[in-house]
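lol so apparently i was supposed to do this last week
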Amino acid sequence: MDTYKATIGLEVHAELKTKTKVFCACVNSADEVRPNVNICPVCMGHPGTLPVLNKEAVKHVLKVGYSIGANIADFTEFDRKNYFYPDIPKGYQISQYKYPLVSGGELAGVKITRVHLEEDTARSTHDTGDCSLVDFNRAGVPLMELVTEPVIHSAEQASAFAKELQLLLRYLGVGDANMEKGEMRVEANISVSQTDKFGTKTEVKNLNSFKVVEKAISYEIKRQIALLESGEKVIQETRGWDEAGQKTYSQRIKEDSHDYRYFPEPDLPKLKLSEITEFKKEALEKELGELPWQKRKRLQKNFTLKAEDAEIFVQSKELSDYFELVVEPFKENSKLVKLSTNYMLSDYLGLLKNDTSGATISKIPPGNFSKLMQMVGDNKLSSRGAKDTLLALFTDGGDPEKIANEKGLIQKSDEGELMKVVLAVIEANPNAVADYRSGKESALQFLIGQGMKATRGGANPDVLKKSFVVGLTNAK
Ligand code: ADP
Ligand code: ZN
Ligand code: MG
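anyway here it is w/ zinc ion bound
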């Protein structure tokens, strides 16, 4: 069997976070649970109403375009995509066909075909007995559609791409893109071929988690190869994902774009973007902020973090903001930065994970976490002592130095002071000293133990050992 190459292109819809819907003044709230409260004659599709374009939604799509190095349209217009369904009361969806806002660009190594703006449909529910229900809160919510080129070659690469897109939308503040809430929805086009020519593709719709994106694509690749191997053909069709059966299933033979009878939306003005101040490149590029891949690079470069640690910070603004505040006082000191990373990601996150009171990372003020790290770096605290102090900081709060002092956790590292202890121990244990001098290594351990006892466990073990070696040599 010659090897098959899989080809995948993604179409991703993401709801945009704006104050109001894309063509009317209704509130755009993803959290509204009461049905049909954020509605008006415009988004209900009443005859005679007119859409008014929300500039914020356009800006969001343009920001995505600038981030991925795409071409921004100079001329753009909206189109009517005609079809009949209860979730689209006008009988058409306002979308963009010929002149998308954004085309080209690249994200996570994947070439982008286009990004356009359209309106979301109402939400229909079919599992309510003998009737279906429609909630129009979602109708007219600004929706971004991004289409990739067919340049993805594995299920893992496809889900990695979707994750990076979600992260970008969150960084830009243009959408929350939670897949389980339907704020981001992925459709995958998949084909397999043994030659350079593409095979017939199928489109799998409504993939509602990254895991499902991966599973559905893997399944579809296997299914198509099996079909071809048994001499059958892949039919171009739309398929769905059956979670219970862990397989894709045929939904319908795909419609062609001419079935939608696209034509320019006459109720919205055509836009010349370069003539509209808010849409200009200079204005929008200033608002982009640091992008995920820029942060990835900066963190690794400035702090020599391990790639997987850097990635944890790239994925969470909350964690990385905290981290950067913690290391601010000693950011040139790679040892302390490393120490802080470890204590934060393992110990502190561990405490937070087991906490049931809903505490967040800011529970220990970053300045106090810094101080604690500084004390560990200065050998004032053993790792055990640091963990105990961290726990006290977490449960009771307060100043790390004060806590460590009160709990008697401060290690004695002062060489002069420890030397006094060492000399007293040597004086009091002539037999052990003699054993050590006759070559018994274990005698040194015994003496160090006595020193530890004398300091009630508070001596820095490294400094104590060094002091004994010096003390024993000198006290001949
Ligand atoms: P359609 O007209 O069927 O919607 P498009 O050309 O608009 O097809 O492409 C839709 C998506 O399908 C894009 O993401 C594109 O990259 C992807 N695609 C196109 N051809 C293939 C193929 N042979 N295999 C996998 N994906 C494909
Ligand atoms: Zn409305
Ligand atoms: Mg298409």
